[in-house]
């Protein structure tokens, strides 16, 4: 079976969030089940060294935004098809924004080119390689199913995976000409979305199958609260919607072999976490002799993540005997709130604004618990990293957080299967209440270690989810 992935990011090459981790890890898991995957990815400047080593396998003179070519190369276990279109992707800044932090004004053209290049090779193939399934990810690849339908030939099966429905690729109606799409398709049952064009809505209408990254999130987005305006479209296509839980790369996230750690450890050597905690304390100027639990946050600092509520709950966290290590960036107001908290509670709160992949591994290894008070969370990966590293997740009951963490209620504790703490009220009081539960559990060292052991033994890899994707592919092909 042959599958063409279409994505705007892919770890470890380019990453802004969980989409990249999925796009980087899923192909290997599918390959283990006999699926041959090629991944179409924009050739951003960070990938230019790979362009020089690869082989040109296709060229286009009339993509949206001009010409481009596909260069094939296998790197880090991923078979990449890099879309080399310098006029669109040879730019400073992040994948979607410039150095000023603002979206590129031609993002609609840039990612329409990505989608159209993928659609063309889906029909024409590459030296005899023709995909059975085209699997697009998020709004940036959302026009891929549209171009497949517009071509006129019988297309391969198509899938769109929603990683976060809050990001929809919405542009004014004037872009239709830039996208090389017929105005006949601009209507409420097609591309039109409240007077605009939405790349994600287009995919939801025209893809054969819709998936999202956890079963609970698949149910949530059918409601107005979580559907972000697209719940009506999704309800019309509910029979084509399913949720398949994300996994993580077990080789990249392995506390026994992780080179970013001060000391490796496993289920039987949990005491070595203390050396990692000491290194985190050193890096963030935390009191190294503090004997209460060290909480961590590794996250974008946004309201979605509930971090405004957490900021308000910090005095209670400190009063209860905790410390906090935070790594992340985002909303300037939230950045300032946590920086001020670090000044107010020196030695108890340490903050690193920005992102450092290696440091994120060390923080997971050194902390006792990871805080994820998200108001909505399609899947979440940091709680899976926490489980893998024996760092107990403290999570809101939403999306993939609810699907992956077993709450420390009486029944779960009695059965010794509890892996973290789940709560419902994302507010200062709600976070304070769950922190009280964490402090009580932490004081019982035997109980805490049993929970760590249960967490580290929980399956968090891609094996089960990859099999579900293969089953879906086979059904679509049949």
From TrEMBL:
Reactions accelerated catalytically: [(1->4)-alpha-D-glucosyl](n) + ADP-alpha-D-glucose = [(1->4)-alpha-D-glucosyl](n+1) + ADP + H(+)
Pathway stated in the Swiss-Prot or TrEMBL entry: Glycan biosynthesis; glycogen biosynthesis
GO term, biological process aspect, one: glycogen biosynthetic process
Residue ranges occupied by any Glycosyl transferase family domain in the UniProt entry: 287-440
Positions bound to ADP-alpha-D-glucose: 15
GO molecular function: alpha-1,4-glucan glucosyltransferase (ADP-glucose donor) activity; alpha-1,4-glucan glucosyltransferase (UDP-glucose donor) activity
SUPFAM superfamilies found in the cross-reference section: UDP-Glycosyltransferase/glycogen phosphorylase (SSF53756)
EC number: 2.4.1.21
Gene3D superfamilies referenced in this protein's UniProt entry, alphabetically: Glycogen Phosphorylase B (3.40.50.2000)
Domain Starch synthase catalytic: 2-236
Signal peptide region: none
Transferase found in the keyword field: yes
HAMAP family named among the record's database cross-references: Glycogen_synth
Protein name, as recorded: Glycogen synthase
Protein's organism: Antarctobacter heliothermus
Organism lineage string: Bacteria, Pseudomonadati, Pseudomonadota, Alphaproteobacteria, Rhodobacterales
């Amino acid at each position: 079976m042959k599958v063409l992935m279409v994505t705007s990011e892919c770890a470890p090459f380019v990453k802004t969030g969980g989409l990249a981790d999925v796009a980087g890890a899923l192909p290997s898991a599918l390959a283990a089940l006999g699926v041959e995957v090629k991944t179409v990815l924009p050739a951003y400047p960070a990938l230019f060294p790979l362009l020089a080593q690869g082989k040109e396998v296709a060229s286009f003179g009339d993509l949206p935004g001009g010409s481009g070519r596909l260069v094939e190369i296998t790197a880090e276990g991923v078979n990449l098809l890099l879309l080399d279109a310098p006029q669109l992707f040879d730019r400073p800044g992040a994948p979607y924004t410039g150095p000023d932090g603002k979206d590129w004004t031609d993002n609609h053209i840039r990612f329409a080119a990505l989608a159209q290049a993928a659609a063309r090779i889906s029909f024409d193939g590459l030296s005899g390689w023709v995909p059975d399934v085209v699997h697009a990810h998020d709004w940036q690849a959302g026009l891929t199913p549209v171009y497949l339908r517009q071509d006129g030939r019988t297309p391969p099966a198509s899938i769109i995976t929603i990683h976060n429905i809050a990001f929809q690729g919405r542009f004014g109606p004037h872009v239709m000409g830039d996208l090389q799409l017929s105005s006949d398709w601009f209507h409420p049952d097609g591309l039109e979305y409240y007077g605009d064009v939405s790349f994600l809505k287009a995919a939801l209408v025209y893809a054969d199958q819709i998936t999202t990254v956890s079963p609970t999130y698949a149910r949530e987005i059918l409601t107005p609260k979580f559907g972000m305006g697209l719940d009506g479209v999704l309800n019309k296509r509910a029979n084509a919607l399913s949720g398949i839980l994300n996994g993580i790369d077990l080789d990249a996230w392995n506390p026994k072999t992780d080179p970013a750690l001060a000391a490796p450890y496993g289920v039987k050597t949990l005491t070595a976490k203390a050396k990692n905690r000491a290194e985190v304390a050193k890096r963030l100027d935390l009191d190294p002799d503090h004997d209460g639990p060290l909480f961590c946050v590794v996250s974008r600092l946004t309201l979605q993540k509930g971090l405004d509520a957490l900021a308000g709950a910090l005095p209670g966290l400190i009063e209860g005997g905790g410390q906090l290590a935070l790594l992340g960036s985002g909303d300037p107001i939230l950045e300032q709130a946590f920086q001020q908290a670090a000044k107010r509670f020196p030695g108890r709160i340490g903050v690193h604004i920005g992102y450092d992949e290696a440091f994120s591994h060390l923080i997971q290894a050194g902390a006792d618990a990871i805080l994820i008070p998200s108001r909505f969370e399609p899947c979440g990966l940091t709680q899976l990293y926490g489980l893998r590293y024996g760092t107990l997740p403290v999570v809101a009951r939403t999306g993939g957080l609810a699907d992956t963490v077993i709450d420390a209620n009486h029944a779960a504790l009695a059965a010794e299967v509890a892996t973290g703490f789940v709560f419902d009220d994302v507010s200062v009081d709600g976070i304070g209440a769950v922190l009280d539960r964490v402090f009580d559990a932490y004081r019982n060292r035997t109980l805490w270690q049993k929970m760590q052991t249960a967490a580290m033994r929980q399956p968090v890899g891609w094996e089960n989810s990859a099999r579900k994707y293969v089953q879906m592919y086979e059904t679509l092909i049949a």
